[in-house]
Amino acid sequence: MMAQKQIVLGALDCFAPGFLAQGMWAHPADRTGDFNSLSYWTDYARLLERGLFDMLFLADTIGVYDVYGGSRDPALRLGVQVPINDPFVLIAALAGATSNLGLAATGNLLYEPPYLFARRLSTLDHLTGGRVGWNIVTGILASGARAFGRDLMGHDDRYDFGDEFMEIVYRLWEHSWEDGAVVQDRERPMFTDPDKVHQVAYAGRHLKMSGIHLTAPSPQRTPLLFQAGASGRGKQFAARHAECMFVNGTSRASLSRAVADMHRALAEQGRTPDQVRILAGLTVIVGETRAHARDKQEAFKAAASAEATLVHASGGLGIDLSRYPYDSEIEYSETDANRTLMDNLTRQPDGSRITIRQVAEKMSLSSRNMLIVGDAQTVADEMIAVVAETGIDGFNLARVLMPDSLEDFVRLVVPRLQEKGAYKAAYRSGTLREKLGLGDGARLAANHYGRHAGEEAVASI
Amino acid sequence: MMAQKQIVLGALDCFAPGFLAQGMWAHPADRTGDFNSLSYWTDYARLLERGLFDMLFLADTIGVYDVYGGSRDPALRLGVQVPINDPFVLIAALAGATSNLGLAATGNLLYEPPYLFARRLSTLDHLTGGRVGWNIVTGILASGARAFGRDLMGHDDRYDFGDEFMEIVYRLWEHSWEDGAVVQDRERPMFTDPDKVHQVAYAGRHLKMSGIHLTAPSPQRTPLLFQAGASGRGKQFAARHAECMFVNGTSRASLSRAVADMHRALAEQGRTPDQVRILAGLTVIVGETRAHARDKQEAFKAAASAEATLVHASGGLGIDLSRYPYDSEIEYSETDANRTLMDNLTRQPDGSRITIRQVAEKMSLSSRNMLIVGDAQTVADEMIAVVAETGIDGFNLARVLMPDSLEDFVRLVVPRLQEKGAYKAAYRSGTLREKLGLGDGARLAANHYGRHAGEEAVASI
């Protein structure tokens, strides 16, 4: 048998009651309401390790989905990613409960002081033995910015700010402490060789700092970097920084386009496709038989909340979907600035339009992710085919019902993928970056932007 | 036997190689060099739970002790609290490894965005089941401020800033979510009752924000609050906010003065001594016999680093002690602004002066803490007598050799304290605040400033 591409697999979730399948917390069998307890998450993480998942990936939102109807009340009432806790605290709490699982979370760089953020991530990388990832985001919610007494920066400005933030954290992670700086020589005595520790100084338009990194180099130094930029400026940012990229798409065609886009953007940064892993969001409903899976899907659809789906979609789009007719085709006013985005939302492959109700129904279980429904054989075959055809490297799996969705997947689909040689039979050793075959050993690849960003500036101080 | 006051006991340490007994990491039996590994800390925390310690308390320093000789090199070379990792990450990692131990850490409010800091602490309180404490500090190192592109604020300004920070976090923790706001009613469905969640808005001289708290109420809501203000403004801040206070003093007389001072400051805030626990820093060297303990002390003294002690003391005082003669009595210039502080450092009870060398020797194992050396009987008796005479409620124990100092204490001293009825035989149930008998159930006491700070402002939005 020809050696087959091994599918990379993450579990995508957030530290909140509702994630993508909106309203499922209200399903009688769902445990998501226990999300504040540590045992909920240690059970979750251990299940993922049984299934050899590469990582648990925790999305995060600073702010509330308050665009729909101009009110935060529906998000609160329906549990749409609120309350939402600090995902990096959870990663730390899972360090001791797991030994191979990658632990990645979204960190919004608009609101974090880079000096402390860099230390926090280095500390996490130490305590997890190099299993930490950071999904770089720059925020979309105005309510988030207001929580810091600010207005939300413009889209491209946010990425400019992000560039400055990255310059600082790269210098701290990669260049402040040389390899071998920590000596721990009890005889001399010398804990750290001061000649191998360097001041980092940065003064940009938005950010300014001066200091040494407070933490000695962690196994990966820079945590594994994730990004999901979809705009032009976002793709450029992702192509420079990301080692894992998220793409959304409900069809093979849209995923193929997203992959081709990303590969072009990578080439512009002098990087090759094998230096990143592209993961597509995926929702799976698997049953013992196809009929069983379809029955589950219908039951889930009935349990899901259309209103909560629109609350979530409105926040993501920045468009109040309650302002459009629910059950009839949308007629746009001349001045509707959202027309293009709304067209994207409602246009079907055949050119026809669907209503807001139909949008809600379509997105209710899987949001903007691909949805695969079937028996284990069907699901495994489809996953393998999507990878082969679109050029993605794997999936970020978002559960519908917790923990049933993941238990079913681990029990039914994982063995099929393994039989087909499309999924690992055991974890590889090393850090998260090494397990994914990325980078220069445990460190950023030699040609990664961050590996050398500001190196000369640091050396000259 | 008359019911005796139960001694409160914390272990005081930091997430770094060196803490107070400077240079001990170089001792052949010391394990502190493993501080980056999770198992080092889970072993540590479990040892403390065997000894029924009330808490592990992690000090923190943002910045480097670079006052001595005007250079950070000695601190790096001698491992004086550098490298230093994020203590809140460690608390999270210890949540699952412990079940009763309080987990407290220093958080410097000058550099943390209050909105995210409040969420982080609430998340920790959830995952630990209400065992989190926060030591409020406002920083002393200019190198810390520079790491954020700022100059260190003046002393009193730092406390004014701190007052604003506290106003925000109290509103988020105490008033944004009413009790019972989280309904989790699957029938309606209603996850959160929006009418019971309130906007927090604050606009001060330094800080501004508007938003709901992102986290639902945690067991303690406000984490247990620690403070160690020693200046006039610092004492006032501590008397308003702190539920546990740290005092330093090498003698019973100085501890008695510190307690009396604190009680006066508390009274000015309308609080009574039973509403706080005052803990004194303590270093214990215990042996099977007194002679054994004294031998240990001599061996530790020989291993400790005088230079590292002065590096640490210089940073704490803000005075470069390398500028004074090492081995002869100090003669001050007319213009020496540090004369008063230096007098405090070198003056003996009999009015004589000691040299910088003697200062270093005196501080090398216990810094500014009380030091007790002896067999278990002596140590236990002395601890009980100090509590009875000075009015403190207990101690924060700083180890010399790790883990030997703590293992010896748990094995030898704890049983003696228990025999004498001066120490608990088992943990009390409940949150950290409840275990210490503070507060209104798990919450801040009804007359605590934070319980009602900004309550009306929040309700009116």
Mind explaining what this structure looks like?
The structure is a homodimer. The mean pLDDT of chain A is about 95. Chain A has a single domain, classed as TIM Barrel (Alpha-Beta Barrel), CATH 3.20.20. In chain A, helix 10 packs across helix 12 and helix 13 packs across helix 14. The radius of gyration of chain A is 22 Å and the shape is globular. With about 450 residues, chain A is α/β, with parallel strands linked by helices. Chain A has 17 helices and 13 strands. In chain A, the strands form three sheets. In chain A, strands 1-2-3-4-9-10-11-13 form an eight-stranded parallel barrel, surrounded by seven helices. Chain A has a two-stranded antiparallel ribbon with strand order 5-6. In chain A, strands 7-8 form a two-stranded antiparallel sheet. Chains A and B meet through helix 2, helix 3, helix 4, helix 5 and strand 6 of A and helix 2, helix 3, helix 4, helix 5 and strand 6 of B.
Write a concise keyword list for the protein shown above.
homodimer, 461 residues, alpha/beta, TIM Barrel, eight-stranded parallel β-barrel, two-stranded antiparallel ribbon, 13 strands, globular
Largest sheet of chain A: 8 strands, parallel, barrel
Count of discrete domains of chain A:
1
Q: Strand-residue fraction of chain A?
A: 15-25%
Q: How do the strands line up in the largest sheet of chain A?
A: 1-2-3-4-9-10-11-13
Instruction: List how many beta strands of chain A DSSP finds.
Output: 13
Q: Can you give the mean pLDDT of chain A? A: 94
| SS summary, helix count of chain A | 17
| Biggest interchain interface, per-side counts | A-B, 81 and 81 residues
Rounded to an integer in angstroms, the radius of gyration calculated over CA atoms of chain A is: 22 Å
Order of helices and strands of chain A: EHEHHEHEHHEEEEEHEHEHHHHEHEHHHH
Return the CATH topology of chain A: TIM Barrel
* Helix proportion of chain A: 25-40%
Shape of chain A: globular
Which stretches of chain A are low in confidence, meaning pLDDT under 50 for 5 or more residues running? none
| CATH homology group of chain A | Luciferase-like domain
Oligomer: homodimer
- CATH architectural name of chain A: Alpha-Beta Barrel
Helix and strand content put the structural class of chain A at alpha/beta
Whole-Å distance between the termini of chain A?
56 Å
**CATH uppermost class of chain A:** Alpha Beta
